[in-house]
User: Which sequence fits this backbone?
């Protein structure tokens, strides 16, 4: 019996509420002997740690640095090694695009290049308004490449979605992203013969965008990632009998939540607005996924102090979440994003779970951080076990076997 069959067999419905708070990229590495989480002033998180089970969660496997897609799939109880979902489809769903069977979605970054060398992969994180202006311009210039239809959609800040439509297209192509600065503009490569045409179309698109934006600053080229068709995946209601809702401001995370059957709640982008949305809808669902992005954004920017301030901002709002008195509350990250590395990393995520059925941690830790979580009662475990653990604490699993 596989995991999903087991979940379907033992899941049961009740009114107990579950909240999963994801501080994206929460884990870090020390600067002046302290990580961002250790540096932050966070009395409410520290008090919660005393009343919760702690541990470290590994998104994929030891030493594997995860992308946001597979990391979140694991958080929702899906084996990320069984479901390969390109970021393009997640971004597309997140901005409300209907993706057909002959469509392929690609996540795009506007970027900065000088003499063909990428100098900024995010074009200074331009405003969403500026993004929309650029998309409106390109939409007038690039509608077809050969017999493939081109459609462009704005995302948040530097992100956009490219949707290509035509017969005989394949998503079996490489990313067109050097993944670092100081390297030449990257182009897509086919991973199989049937994908040769698709790679050719994507590369012609990159060339056209670079030509159309020539001489502009900071946006004068693009990077393409996560080429994907629409996948098939069971819903959280099918697996866990959960009536689930997502509160997330970034399209990619709304897209992934939609893919696993969550209702997407309209919300603002600040932490306060997201928690107000949680309070507004709290009586309508029994599972909430709340995604907070800026901890990751500041980590990727190498901005240690602003990542610290984001953690502190969340801590001040935490009492509002606790007043809702959910049966089970989890606070963790999808992956670590140390500001010293300016990227995702393989380091496991600090993890906290609060319910009436918790076991005390050894040593009675008085703070929530990487070190206390490493010594917590849960030890190290895989992120795919988080949702089942939450189900158990919420008394939503029947006994397995006689």
Assistant:
């Amino acid at each position: 019996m596989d995991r999903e069959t087991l979940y379907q067999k033992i899941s049961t419905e009740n009114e107990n509420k579950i909240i999963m708070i994801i501080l994206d990229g929460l884990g870090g590495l020390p600067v002046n002997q302290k990580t961002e989480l250790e540096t932050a002033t966070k009395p409410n998180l520290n008090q919660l740690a005393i009343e919760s089970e702690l541990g470290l969660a590994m998104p994929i496997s030891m030493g594997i640095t995860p992308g946001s897609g597979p990391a979140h799939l694991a958080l929702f109880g899906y084996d990320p090694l069984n479901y390969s979902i390109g970021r393009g489809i997640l971004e597309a769903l997140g901005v409300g695009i209907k993706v057909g069977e002959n469509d392929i979605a690609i996540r795009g970054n506007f970027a900065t290049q000088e003499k063909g060398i990428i100098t900024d992969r995010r074009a200074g994180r331009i405003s969403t308004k500026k993004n929309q202006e650029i998309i409106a311009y390109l939409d007038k210039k690039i509608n077809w490449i050969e017999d493939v239809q081109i459609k462009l959609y704005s995302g948040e800040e530097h992100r956009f979605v490219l949707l290509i439509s035509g017969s005989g297209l394949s998503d079996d192509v490489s990313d067109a992203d050097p993944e670092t600065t100081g390297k030449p503009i990257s182009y897509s490569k086919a991973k199989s013969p049937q994908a040769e045409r698709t790679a050719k179309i994507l590369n012609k698109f990159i060339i056209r965008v670079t030509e159309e934006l020539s001489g502009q600053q900071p946006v004068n080229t693009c990077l393409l990632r996560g080429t994907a068709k629409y996948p098939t995946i069971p819903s959280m209601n099918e697996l866990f009998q959960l009536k689930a809702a997502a509160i997330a401001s970034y399209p990619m995370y709304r897209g992934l939540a939609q893919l696993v059957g969550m209702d997407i709640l309209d919300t603002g982008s600040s932490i306060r607005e997201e928690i107000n949305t949680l309070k507004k809808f709290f009586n309508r669902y029994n599972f909430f996924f709340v995604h907070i992005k800026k901890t990751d954004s500041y980590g990727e920017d190498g901005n240690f102090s602003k990542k610290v301030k984001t953690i502190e901002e969340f801590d001040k709002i935490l009492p509002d979440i606790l007043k809702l008195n959910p049966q089970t509350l989890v606070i963790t990250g999808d992956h670590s994003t140390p500001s010293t590395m300016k990227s995702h990393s393989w380091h496991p995520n600090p993890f906290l779970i609060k319910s009436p059925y918790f076991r005390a941690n050894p040593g009675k830790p008085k703070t929530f951080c990487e070190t206390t979580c490493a010594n917590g009662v849960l030890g190290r475990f895989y992120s795919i076990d988080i949702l089942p653990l939450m189900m158990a604490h919420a008394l939503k699993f029947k006994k397995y076997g006689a």
